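[step 3/7] inverse_fold.run input=structure_tokens len=111
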């Protein structure tokens, strides 16, 4: 999908997910139309049950995106807080993977 939308900086594909960023309803409609036209041309199909449209915030790749900022998904933070104390190397690696992913968005994070 990267090749299909590479010229559109407001269309952000990641594997089988796409996030659109717009400031106004009119801009969002134009962007959505452009996204769908390019998808049709490339024979891509979307599952309407998995779409979130015209949202002021959305979960995307473990983060919450809004017009104000990007912040960690509260579910991800809760999973970190509730993670049992690692008892083996694999548990520690799993824990470090979880916290490293969210660390760059959490200003009070420390290891």
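[step 3/7] decode complete -> sequence:
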């Amino acid at each position: 999908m990267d090749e299909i939308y590479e010229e559109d900086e407001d269309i952000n594909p990641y594997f089988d997910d796409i996030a659109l960023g717009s400031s106004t309803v009119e801009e969002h409609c134009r962007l959505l139309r452009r996204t769908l036209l390019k998808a049709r041309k490339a024979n891509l199909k979307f599952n309407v049950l998995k779409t979130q449209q015209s949202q002021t915030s959305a979960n995307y790749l473990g983060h919450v995106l809004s017009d104000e900022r990007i912040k960690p998904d509260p579910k991800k933070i809760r999973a970190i807080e509730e993670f049992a104390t690692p008892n083996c190397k694999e548990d520690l690696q799993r824990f470090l993977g979880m916290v490293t992913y969210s660390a760059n968005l959490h200003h009070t994070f420390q290891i």
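[step 4/7] annotate
The chain has a mean pLDDT of 85.
Residues 25-41 form the longest helix (17 residues).
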